[in-house]
Amino acid sequence: MGESFFVLDYPLAYFITFRTYGTWLHGDERGSVERHGFNIYGTPLLPPNPRWETAERERMLHDAFILDAPHRRAVDEAIREVCRFRGYELSALAVRTNHVHVVVTAECAPEPIMNAFKAYSTRKMRDQGLIGKNIHPWVRHGSTRWLWTDEAAANAVNYVLYGQGGLL
Questions:
Q1: For residues 18 and 142, is the Cβ–Cβ distance under 8 A?
Q2: Helix, strand, or coil here: 120?
Q3: In angstroms, how far is the first alpha carbon of the chain from the final one?
Q4: Domain covering 13-22+60-162, topology
Q5: Which residues contact 28 (CB under 8 A, 6 or more apart)?
Q6: Spatial CB neighbours of 107, under 8 Å, sequence gap ≥ 6
Q7: Average pLDDT over residues 27-51
Q8: In terms of Cα–Cα distance, which of 90, 63, 59, 60 is closest to 76?
Q9: Which among 136, 137, 157, 140 has a CA at the least distance from the CA of 94?
Q10: Residues 126, 96, 112, 63, CA torsion sign
Q11: How far apart are CA 99 and CA 64, in angstroms?
Q12: Coil, strand or helix at 100
């Protein structure tokens, strides 16, 4: 009798991160990723480039978007609603002033999950009168790490819940 095994189509969890609009521009002193190249996790960031950062800032459609306490509450509520409605298992959530971290389990690709988080959050902030129709609070994409092991998932949850520093 031969060995039987199965292959997981989806990881144990995803570690999804997305930033608010205009808070980390290409050329920034923190470095950035090449948006048209291959963004492989763990590869070096592009070095700072003040001219590139200035050009990016001049192209912005509105000021950088910062999540204050009411915004953060709305985003937190919206992400939890998405998870309940779609049956995703939410393991960790941290809504910060300029980014959101989520560790979630779902049997689908991570990009639609991230897009739903952003869309529901934007709609909730608009419905609550926190932002106008001309404000686009999120960057175009984000980071979607696939967590295949218990250790990777536990490390991501630990980082999201306890590795973010102070209350904001």
A1: yes
A2: helix
A3: 57
A4: Alpha-Beta Plaits (3.30.70)
A5: 48, 53
A6: 9, 10
A7: 65
A8: 90
A9: 157
A10: positive
A11: 12
A12: strand
Look up residue 154 and give its two tokens.
Answer: 């536990």
Kindly report, residue by residue over 46-74, the tens digit of the pLDDT: 777 778 667 777 787 888 899 999 999 99
Phi-psi region of 71 (alpha: psi -120 to 50; beta: other; left: phi over 0): alpha
Please state, for a pLDDT cut of 90, what percent of the chain lies above it: 64
Residue 80 backbone phi and psi in degrees, to 5: -65, -35
Q: What's the distance, CA 60 to chain centroid?
A: 20
Entry pTM: 0.84
The token pair that represents 41 in the structure block = 């996790």
Backbone phi and psi for residue 143, each to the nearest 5 degrees, phi listed first? -110, 135
The contacts of residue 34 (CB under 8 Å, 6+ apart) are: 46
Strands 99-105 and 13-19, sheet pairing = antiparallel
Domain boundaries, the chain: 13-22+60-162
CB 74 within 8 A of CB 128: yes
Give CA–CA dist 111/86, Å, rounded.
14
Strand runs (DSSP E) across 60-154, as ranges? 89-95, 99-105, 143-147
